[in-house]
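Q: Structure tokens for this one, please.
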Amino acid sequence: MPSFDIVAEVDNHELTNAVDQMNREVSNRFDFKGSDAKIILKEYEMNFEAASDFQLKQMRDIMVNKLSKRGIDKEDAKKITKMIKEKKFKVQAAIQGEQVRVTGKKRDELQEVMAYLKAADIDLPLQFNNFRD
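A: Here is the predicted structure, written as tokens:
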């Protein structure tokens, strides 16, 4: 039976954007005024530099907030499966960890779901992987 997976993976460009946003927020926050706190990205490794443990914990919270918007969490996965079911496509959508598996009898039906999700107003960078016939 044909199937594909819906995922939202962070690529290098997205990671760079997230680190830039984190550094901007750190430079603008009141609790970091006058400090040299910053986040340095080397390939897929982030280094945090701060004067105190409190600032490091705050930077970690900023990182979690910025990067959590770049993946399919349970809420978004439920939203995607609900959208698919409401349109009454002849497919099955199941949440599997951080991805949604869509299975159907015909390839055309799966392609309709892909087109629908691409056109939908979902605030996630969705990718469609593992398309199988």
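A few notes: The radius of gyration is 19 Å. The chain has a mean pLDDT of 87.
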